[in-house]
Amino acid sequence: SLGGKTSPLGRKVGVRRLEDGEQAKLIPNQDRDEEADPTWNHSGAKLYLSVHDKGVPFFAPHEVTREGERMQSLAGPHDAPGCSYQNPVLSPDGKRIAWSLRRGRSGTISIMNTRIAGLSEEHEFPGHFIGVVDWLPDGKRMVVSYLLLDEPRAGYSLGIVDLSTDTLSPWLNLSKSDGNVSVSPDGKRLAFTAKVDGHSEIFLTDLP
Predict the structure, then answer these.
(1) Which of 151, 161, 169, 181 is the residue whose CA sits 20 to 30 A from 68?
(2) What is the Cα–Cα distance from 141 to 12, expressed in whole angstroms?
């Protein structure tokens, strides 16, 4: 599979590893099942990504330089087995990076400081499965896609998270949403995916 994001300078693209085409691989072959969710920092000097090692049933957060060197894990010393970090997204000022953290029956948004290693905060929402998150321009609120664990067949809904109060306010109930969201640069519109007639399509809506 292939998923990519263009660097801020528009010169390079971060992609998932390809099975062939050695020159396309960012990181040398290692004992991994999958590398996913590449996200550039604002300068284009490094990438954040989720790494799934063989024999380990979860994704761990990592960062790597754009040359594929000096990859390091960002997992905390107290992370228990079963914590899965995915879908990293940088804050508007580039000083924080948010991850969807999946742990047991509690959906969590983990926010790491990009300049001070080990400095992070967690925003926990019991009974929810957090899908994809994106920042609003004020850096204090986020748009999230989520499932209610007691009603998983109901599909994803979209909500607004206030990080100062740890509240998740429901916004749109999208029974056929895939859970992917992306806020426009001016913070006025949201792009999201939803299934129509068995395939995914992109929709736009104004943000509240």
Answers:
(1) 181
(2) 30
